[in-house]
Write a structure and sequence with these properties.
about 575 residues, alpha/beta, nine-stranded mixed β-sheet, 18 helices, 19 strands, globular, disordered N terminus
Length: about 575
């Protein structure tokens, strides 16, 4: 079944707009094939990497170049340039006559950390909180890349456009951030003969909006949705011999990815909002009614995804005597994820244990706090302060979790207002992700529009309702087209990883999906629903991706969450595991 892209946006009942999905098996990204056969219109000379322009850090034995523009027709060279940092062992270099630069060629026999000049993985950071722009490096710094280079990685830092980079004559909103990332990957493959490292082992890593964008890029390798955008900026579409290039990657490391924005309003209210009663969820407000209606729409959506667990059991939500659809196999699966997270926490830690909570955002004046629990029993009693939802077995040092409500009220309270992602007044960060121009945020979520449309007459009876919150505002935004001539449906699909991973969408099996994934999320974060990462995991597994290293980390929030150790070391260890080192 398929959620058809055009139908979803224009239908008054998008959640029911399913048909037959087309599928097409793509070619392996590691080769030279691609679903696009059109010839390149880019300038070959402008895409060539200059092997005579290396700088050298003799103290740390690192060759580097900063500020190489990676497309032939950049929208902005301020962002569309990259830096590359290479362990000295991977290059054989001679000094140029200027006394400061070097001409270098690949040394395939040079080794660092078990890698060679031809097998070293290429790691690419995606540091774009809230889908913001990633500024490129403007100068060399060893400290920021040292751990990766010492492990034998090649570190490539591309600038990427984002929601905060638009100007009066240029929109940098979606999908330009991921488009730039793909263009940088293509640039590396275009120059693979003169650059060290394995372009078959490109790994992306990032957190929050960065984790979301590397997730999108990892799911959408060589997707036709991106081709018109890539061609507009003169990305490398073919190699020097006219063979198609690929932008697919081998691996994705995502911490707390804020993604699946098309349905995020719904899942947020089902997972958290339905248990809150203050702020925009206070009784007597139209937004309280809106919260309930969004939560009711979520089960209809998730049931149509056809997700299955590792045993092949279909996961669905069913009606319950209390709350909104807090029953069924999907609910039980989610409770299992929560239970596993808490049991991992008990296995990983000893008591006395101090829990430290993060404060509010910078400038909020909301401090963090620390509380020490002397025994496991003390901690379980704290979790059960308002209701008994955790049962502890001291003999096995394990717990069982009875339901979502107790967990959400205790550990995952809503920190965002109703309409947490596509705001009814276009006031959320994500409305800027899909803006149509400088300072013009836009609605982007048709499932949200359908909830508004179906209940607009009721909402209008509340004193705090305004007519410009209505569905017509969504329809107006959906009809607009960007500079490439694509409407909101096209752009939203391009930023939805499930569009490429789930048979419920038209992009299923029409992209090259990364083979290796590592996903970590803090269970306490109020930034997104638990279902975001859980559905990503399930969709990847259902797609046939066998290597998904997943953990929901107890007692951590919106951070580079890890059960043990630090995120950088764990990432480097994981890269070694997927590259056979």
């Amino acid at each position: 079944m398929e959620i058809n892209r055009r139908t979803v946006v224009r239908s008054a009942a998008a959640v029911a707009a399913f048909g037959i999905a087309e599928s097409a098996a793509g070619a392996a990204y590691a080769g030279t094939s691609s679903p696009h056969g059109a010839s390149s219109t880019t300038s070959a000379s402008s895409l060539e990497f200059d092997s005579t322009a290396w700088s050298y850090d003799s103290t740390n034995d690192v060759y580097y170049q900063v500020g190489k523009v990676y497309v032939a027709n950049p929208a902005t060279t301020d962002y569309e340039n990259l830096s590359i940092y290479v362990p000295g062992a991977y290059l054989t270099a001679t000094a140029n006559s200027d006394g400061t630069t070097y001409t270098a060629k690949v040394n395939p026999k040079g080794t660092v950390g078990g890698y060679s000049g031809r097998t070293a993985p290429i790691v690419i950071p995606v540091n774009t909180p809230g889908y913001a722009a990633q500024k490129p490096a403007t100068s060399y710094s060893y400290s920021s890349v040292s751990k990766y280079l010492q492990a034998g990685h090649i570190y490539v830092w591309p600038g990427l456009r984002g929601r905060d980079g638009s100007t009066s004559d240029r929109s940098d909103a979606a999908p330009w951030g991921v488009t730039d990332l793909k263009a940088a990957v293509r640039f590396l493959r275009y120059n693979r003969s003169v650059l060290p490292g394995s372009t078959d082992d490109i790994v992306l890593f990032g957190m929050s909006g960065g984790g979301a964008q590397d997730t999108v890029a990892g799911a959408s390798g060589d997707s036709p949705l991106y081709e018109p955008y890539l061609r507009t900026i003169g990305a490398a579409m073919e190699d020097a011999h006219g063979r198609p290039l690929s932008d697919a990657v081998a691996g994705v490391m995502a911490w707390c990815p804020i993604t699946s924005l098309h349905e995020a309003n719904l899942s947020y209210e089902w997972n958290m909002g339905q248990f809150a009663s203050t702020g925009t969820r206070a009784p007597g407000t139209w937004t309280s009614a809106y919260s309930t209606d969004l939560a009711k729409a979520w089960p209809k959506y998730v049931n149509r995804l056809g997700l299955r667990d590792e045993h092949g059991r279909r996961l669905e939500l069913t009606e319950s005597s209390n709350g909104i659809h807090l029953a069924g196999s999907y609910h039980d699966h989610l409770i299992g994820v929560i239970t596993t997270s808490l049991n991992n926490f008990l296995a990983d830690n000893t008591f006395p244990y101090t829990v430290t909570t993060m404060g509010g955002p910078p400038g909020s004046g909301q401090p963090g706090s620390s509380t020490t629990y002397e025994t496991v029993e003390d901690y379980i009693a704290y979790l059960n302060t308002d209701s008994d939802w955790v049962t502890y077995d001291a003999t096995t040092n394990t717990v069982t979790v009875s339901g979502l409500e107790g967990f959400s009220k205790s550990q995952k309270t809503a920190s965002k207002p109703v309409g947490a992602f596509d705001g009814y007044s276009r006031g959320q960060t994500e409305n800027n992700v899909f803006m149509m121009g400088l300072g013009v945020p836009a609605h982007f979520a048709p499932l949200t529009r359908d909830v508004i449309k179906a209940n607009e007459a009721t909402y209008a009876t509340y004193s705090d309702w305004q007519s410009d919150y209505g569905s017509s505002a969504y329809d107006s935004d959906f009809a607009k087209k960007d500079s490439v001539g694509k409407d909101m449906a096209w752009r939203a699909d391009a930023y939805n990883p499930l569009y490429f991973l789930s048979p419920a969408f038209g992009g299923y099996r029409r992209s090259q999906v990364a083979r290796h994934w590592r996903i970590r999320t803090g269970i306490m974060q109020g930034d997104t629903a638990n279902t975001t990462e859980v559905n990503l995991l399930l969709a990847l597994q259902n797609y046939g991706i066998h290597d998904v290293d997943f953990a929901t980390v107890w007692a951590q929030g919106h951070t580079q969450a890890e059960r043990t150790g630090d995120s950088t070391t764990n990432f480097i260890t994981w890269v070694a595991s997927i590259t056979g080192k």
